[in-house]
Design brief:
By secondary structure, the protein is an all-alpha fold. The chain has 2 domains: about 110 residues, Orthogonal Bundle (Arc Repressor Mutant, subunit A), CATH 1.10.10; about 35 residues, no CATH class. The protein contains 9 helices and no strands. The model has no long low-confidence stretch (mean pLDDT about 75).
Length: about 170
């Protein structure tokens, strides 16, 4: 059941959905805003794109998704520039507040582009991100002499498990 309209009010105007050319233009503007350092929420609001429509569009279009990934990398670069400017403008009076801002910006930049700004950035192929990889790298660093010093069962488990990892024998029959 619909409500009757109050006297003296106009019906709500509906804005037409943008056409494909207009939508592509808006997506270009959105990507530029993200690359300049704005969040996706801010960029969507600025260009008038529904965030749900945006997420569905990048999931459906591989080319748009790759452009979005590149914009996110550029966003991390923009944040790095902002971090530099903030670090150069620190005074003794603003040091504590600026430290909080710097840490937040560094964290965001690390999440946006972890290969460059992450905790293990610049460490090359030895970058370790999981416990399993930590165990694998530790086992690979063991020398032949230290392997001989290990108890035979532990050395056998290290050498025979997939990728040199051992779960401590929890699932192995005894």
């Amino acid at each position: 059941m619909t409500r009757p309209r109050k006297r003296g009010t106009k019906p709500a105007k509906r804005t037409p959905k943008p056409g494909p050319a207009d939508l592509a233009n808006r997506y270009d503007q959105l990507l530029e805003s993200v690359a300049d350092g704005k969040s996706v929420r801010q960029a969507c609001d600025a260009v008038g794109v529904n965030r749900g429509d945006w997420w569905r569009a990048i999931q459906a279009d591989d080319a748009l998704f790759s452009r979005y990934a590149r914009a996110r990398e550029l966003q991390a670069e923009a944040l790095a520039g902002e971090i530099r400017e903030l670090a150069e403008s620190v005074t003794p009076q603003t040091a504590n507040a600026d430290r909080v801002k710097l840490d937040a910006l560094r964290w965001i930049a690390a999440k946006l582009h972890p290969k460059v700004y992450g905790d293990f950035a610049g460490k090359g192929p030895e970058q370790v991100t999981t416990i399993g990889e930590l165990h694998l790298h530790a086992a690979q660093r063991l020398t032949a002499e230290s392997m001989k010093a290990l108890p035979a069962r532990q050395a056998k488990a290290l050498l025979s498990s997939p990728e040199g990892q051992s779960d401590g024998g929890a699932d192995e029959p005894r």
